[in-house]
């Protein structure tokens, strides 16, 4: 979605957002009204190397440069000039994972992404030590697992960061993170707005027992709240973004954030009792808390908004990739019949068919587990489609079961929040899955038992969200005290029309039946993991509409 204009925009009044998702690197340039002026994207895929999901740093920069170049080409086509500057820049990326560097800035081991589930021992010990849930994908779990495994690179570690933090430091030279992204590295104290001092002390003690003198806190990036000064684009950084040399240095950057934080911004869900669901390669829900959770639970992470407010996060490793793979099969079948179709058209037809299916999915069952799923237990993925001989198999039932499968694990996590008394006024949905109007939105409302809103940014995603955060930082620099929630409510979403879908009673009952079958059938998934070895040639996953 881009706006048309008769004259070139004042680039000093724009904000550039770059987000590195799991299947797509996107760039989005917005104007003073926060509407997109130009966009660019670059597809990429993770690789399974030595049993761990990773991306190479070469692929990071090829993708960033490709997305920014595509955006620049769109600006040039429309206005006859190549961008030489922007008003501000923001970088966002998939949260968590492990990027460890030595003092010279060299990567010590391949980037370990959020998708890896090899950190169970570390996560369990840290959760018990801290008295708080530490998920498998958090950076501190990856680091402590490396300590438990006595990995040879440990003596050389000088810094640890996330993917957004790595890109930001390469552009500015500053080792910082936005608080939302930092909350997936190590627990944040909502009072101080930085790493929890008590838990850091506990970590220091358990690490000292294994590696005396190893000072974890010195490895971590500085934590910044939304709106803070996070540095300026250096000459080297400008060359990284634009190897042609057209882009000039000196542009201000906002704190780098994670995709969860940019999702909250993109859906105006940073206030208490609001939340959002992001669906792509993974699927996760974020709910801004009124009060602390009653108890810790392995299905719930406590992270923060970009402004530092506590958020309950239900993160599922597996989202729409399996649904997307089936859409690809149907697209190939249509082409084989002599009717090739655009992938979006195939996806829309499949989703539309789902509305005609039985509320409970017709007795069918789908697991979208391409990777391990910590909430339900399997440490590896085996995508499955299961039915009994007396179930009904047609396109409508199949499609509904597959969409329900996307939401299954998420619904189990949301049930935990409901049991803890967490109330939600509305959930906002975004990601490519929601571009087909009214389908996934309606079925998600049934799955979580709450109204689901979708607005104009449903398909824009985090690149737009981090561009808004960059614009917000520029506004704070000029105007001083300005809260993020007020900025979003008054200047970004004040006139945005939202389509809100209430849970349908029949859909809610039907999904409840499906979810009971889904929980019971988890034994099938576990048996498949135990019985079926992963194909050795499998090194990548199918791309998914909308990315993580």
What's a concise summary of this model?
The chain has 548 residues and is of the alpha/beta class. The chain contains 16 helices and 22 strands.
Describe the structure.
- Pfam families: FGGY_C, FGGY_N.
- With 548 residues, this protein is α/β, with parallel strands linked by helices.
- It has a domain at 96-161 and 186-219: Nucleotidyltransferase, domain 5.
- The protein has 16 helices and 22 strands.
- The protein has helices at residues 57-79, 120-130, 139-148, 163-172, 179-182, 197-208, 235-241, 259-266, 321-336, 343-354, 395-419, 439-448, 462-479, 484-492, 505-520, 522-531, and strands spanning 15-20, 24-30, 36-43, 47-49, 52-54, 88-93, 99-101, 159-161, 176-178, 188-189, 194-195, 222-224, 257-258, 274-279, 283-288, 301-304, 310-316, 365-367, 384-386, 426-430, 452-454, 499-501.
- Strands 16-17-15-14-20-21-22 form a 7-stranded mixed sheet, with helices on both faces. The protein has a 5-stranded mixed sheet with strand order 3-2-1-6-13. It has a two-stranded antiparallel sheet with strand order 4-5.
- Helix 8 packs across helix 13, helix 9 crosses helix 10 (343-354) and helix 11 (395-419) packs across helix 15 (505-520).
- It is globular and about 65 Å long.
- The chain starts with 14 loop residues before the first strand and ends in a 17-residue tail after the last helix.
Using the alpha-carbon principal axes, give the shape.
globular
Uncertain stretches: 537-548
**Biggest sheet record:** 7 strands, mixed
Q: Strands across the major sheet, in which order? A: 16-17-15-14-20-21-22
Helix content: 25-40%
User: What's the total count of β strands?
Assistant: 22
Helix tally equals 16
Q: In the CATH scheme, what's the topology name of the domain at 96-161 and 186-219?
A: Nucleotidyltransferase, domain 5
CATH architecture verdict of the domain at 96-161 and 186-219: 2-Layer Sandwich
Strand content: 15-25%
Q: How many whole angstroms does the radius of gyration measure?
A: 22 Å
